[in-house]
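**Polypeptide and fold**
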Amino acid sequence: MNSSVSTKESLTQQLSAHLMRPIDDATRQRARYHLLDWLGCVAGAIKSEAAGRYLKHMDQPESWLGNILEMDDVHRSAILHPGPVIWPSALKHERDLEKALNSAIIGYEAMICVGATFDSHHYSHYHPTATAGFFGAAATHIHRHLGQDIALVDDYASAMGLAGTVSGGLWQTRHENDDAKQFHVAHAIETGERISAYIAGKVKGSRFILEGPQGLYAATCNNTNPMRLDDQWRIHEVSFKPWGACRHAHPAIDAALELKRKTGKLTGEIRVESYADAIIFCDRPDPQTVLDAKFSLQHALAVVAERGVPTLSDFEPDAIKQLASARTRVKVSEASDITSRYPQHYGARITCDGETYELADTLGDPERSMSEDQIIDKARQLIAWGGLADKEADRAIDLALKSDDSTAIQTMLKEWLS
C-alpha cells in the first residue's frame, strides 16, 4: 500500500474510536424498545410458510425470522433494517442483558454509520441491510467478546475490514420467490461471529476497506455520502414500522388513513404520489403472493380504502383475491418534490374524491414516534399472530423492558421456536 495512505486514519478507525464513547441509560431504554420490537417480529413469523423450513434446518432460526413479516425496524437515510441483524448477534451466549443492550447499541451505530454513506447506485443493486449488516454484526460480536475500550480501536477496525471484504447481498431476491433476503441477514450474523473469533486470533482486516482504491465504495457506489459521527447514538434515529408492508409503502398508507379519517371514505380513483424508490419497489398492481402484496402500493391502498388500518391478514392470499377490483382504482406515480426530500423524509401525497392529503414523515419515524403503549401493542399483536398465548406476550414485554437477564430471553426464544 502507498505509504501516504497507510499512515492516514481510515474511516473504520474513526468509526471504531467513535464507538468507544459512554452509553447512557436513556439509550439503553431505547434499545429495550427495539429488542421488544424484534422479539415480536420473530414471534409473528413462527406460523409463516418459510418458518417451518427454518425451524427444522437452522441452528439459530431467530436469525432467519426477524424480517419475514416486513415489520422490522428501519433507518431511513441508511435505508436498512438493523434489528434482525443486531439482536441475534447481541444476545447469543450473553448472560447480562445490559451488556447485550450495549453491544446492540454499538452494532446499530456501526451498521447505520456505514449504511448511510452508501448512495442510490449502491441501493439500486445491493441490499444495505446485508452490506452494512456485516459491519454491524462484526461490531456487535466484538463488543460482546472484548468489551469497549479505546485500546481496542484497531481490533474493531480490523473486524470491520474483514466484514467489508466479504459484505454483499443483491436485490435480485426482489424479483424471485426465494429466501435470499433472510439469508442475507443470517449470513451477516454468522460472519460477524466468525470474525470476532478471528480477531481474537490476531487476524488483521483491511483498514481502508470502505474508501480504498479497490474497496467497497469503489466497487458498489458512484457518489458516497460523508460518514456522520454524531454525539447522539443513532439508534434514536431508527423508525418502528406499524404495518406489515414494505416501509416504502408506509407513507402512502399513513396519508391514505389520514385522508380517510378526514373525508370518511375513499371511493373514487386513488392517486398516490411518492418518492422514486417507493415507486420502483412497490408499483405492483397485480400481486400474486403475500410478499408481492407487502410490496404493492396498489394493494396497501386498496386495504385502506376497503378495510381501514392494515393488519397482517390483509396481505394474505384471501385478501389478495378479494381486493383485486379495489386495486384497479389505485394509480401511482413519482413526485419530484417528495423525491427531493428522500431519504431523510419518507413522504406521500394521496388524492381521492377531490381531496388531497400529504405528509412528510410517517408514523413510527422519530418525528412522529410511536408511544410505548403503541410499541407494546404492536408486539402483542405480532405474538398473537404467531399463535402464542397472551402470557407469552406478557413474558416478552417484561423481559425486554424490565429484566437484566439475557439468558431468560434466550430460553424464551428456544421455547417459542422448538
